[in-house]
What we know:
By secondary structure, this protein is α+β, with helices and mostly antiparallel strands. Helices cover 36% and strands 25% of the residues. It has twelve helices and 21 strands. It has a seven-stranded mixed β-sheet. Strands 8-2-1-11-20-19 form a six-stranded mixed β-sheet, covered by helices on one side. α1 packs parallel to α4 (107-121) and α2 (51-59) packs across α8 (300-317). The longest helix is centred in the last third of the chain and has 30 residues, at 321-350. Keywords: Monooxygenase, Oxidoreductase. It comes from Rhizobium wenxiniae. One of its GO terms (molecular function) is monooxygenase activity. InterPro entries: FAD-bd, FAD-dep_Monooxygenase_BioMet, FAD/NAD-bd_sf.
Amino acid sequence: MKLDGFEVAIAGAGIGGLSLATMLARRGARVLVYDQMGAPQPIGSGFVLQPTGLAILKAMGLLDAIAARGQVITRMHGALAGRSSGPGKTVLEISYPGDGHGIAVQRVALFDLLLSAAIAAGVRFETNARTTNVIEGSRPALTLDGGRATPSADLVVDAMGASSPIGHDPARELKYGALWATVPWPEGGPFHPHELEQRYERASHMAGVLPVGTAKDGAASMATFFWSLRNRDIDAWRNAGREAWLEQVNALWPEALPLAEVAEPVHARYHHHTRKPVAGRGVIRIGDAWHATSPQLGQGANMAMIDAASLASALSRAPSIDEAFARHLHQRGQHVWLYQTLSLVLTPFYQSDSRILPAMRDIAIGPTTRMPLVRQLVSRLVTGDFLSPIKRIGLNDL
């Protein structure tokens, strides 16, 4: 399908929305992104760009820039906390196959890179524009807060994340969220500079440390510190005060206490849903607006970028929007289903009130994932490469 002059309205200037906007604008589409913020800005913690996301950034010509800011990750390691039975026992062991790796980044580093690429490609932005719904028709449009309708477009994309108001299918909030904070990386400290490290007490307490590189050239190296927390307990956590929390951190993982002492935690809530990807004629969802999960598998931003690449490729190859949607869903359907299912099944082993599931994890999962064949399988799963989603798409069209 010829994209010169093709009009696209994207609701949401997150990782998925900016990626898609850039890809389509580079092929001649006229792209307008609507965002509720006063200026586009990132929301969320640091994360690992997996080989899938890195392949897309390479195709976009952005890999070297993000590699210069991020931190190479070669291993994910989780162990029981000091006050658990069997302290120090490994219960999560994942290494990348061969010379593979991920790149951990501060969300702002990737966001700024994608925003600059979008602007350079000619993407336009309307800020302070909170989308409330879609106006269906042969050329759909968006309804903004206050009732104003946007100009109609050939394609409307919902990239507003798990809390998107489009449609009538609210996301199910998970019981556990997390506190997270970006803190200075402790040079020469107890943490490995190329590993995601976690500590657990059963599945009700978890802390993690991820080196995430720099926000921009010349800035200091940072880490993201995570602390698992039931959403219902957030008020009790605030009322108990900072010192009470620091005592909890020290009891669970003393080495992480210096990070917590300088942290300014943000509380994040997580959702799980799989909505219908097509929301009307010429209207489609990508990223968490389509499929939201717990961050336990760490795939959210990577999946949004794969969605964007798949949709852009399909629009370039198919003769019509309907056929492009069909091609896109064929490319993405199985991969999305697999990771939605895995997240739903595996998350309770690491974040839940269960005593049985973490006991099973401690006995079986850690030792099993060190077996060569299982380790290779789990590595492909956690790095997002199972079912080869990039090969299904073909990135030459980006």
